[in-house]
Design brief:
mainly beta; three-stranded antiparallel beta sheet; about 90 residues; single chain
Length: about 90
């Protein structure tokens, strides 16, 4: 049976998630950035990598998948969230 889990994203973080987790969305709650994923809690865990890229900053030269854009501080800070696969 699947369920939805919430994970806090810290800049440049790697998260241990159930294998095959499907990321549903990213967003801000309070002062933190989170992602929500549909997971099978009984699946073995795997490490997945995420990065937040601000406007004008260099995008890492990895294989990337765009997940969404988040706004902090009333829109004063904007970050684009990607999942990436290290070389």
């Amino acid at each position: 049976m699947k369920t939805i889990w919430k994970f806090e994203l810290i800049p440049g973080c790697a998260l241990e998630m159930p294998a095959g987790a499907k990321i549903l969305s990213v967003g801000v709650q309070g002062n933190s950035t989170f992602l929500w994923a549909l997971v099978d809690p009984d699946s073995p865990r795997e490490l997945r990598h995420f990065v937040a890229v601000g406007i004008g900053f260099t995008v890492p030269n990895y294989a990337l998948q765009f997940l969404g854009t988040v706004h902090h501080d009333g829109g004063a800070s904007v970050f684009h969230i990607f999942e990436f696969w290290p070389k």
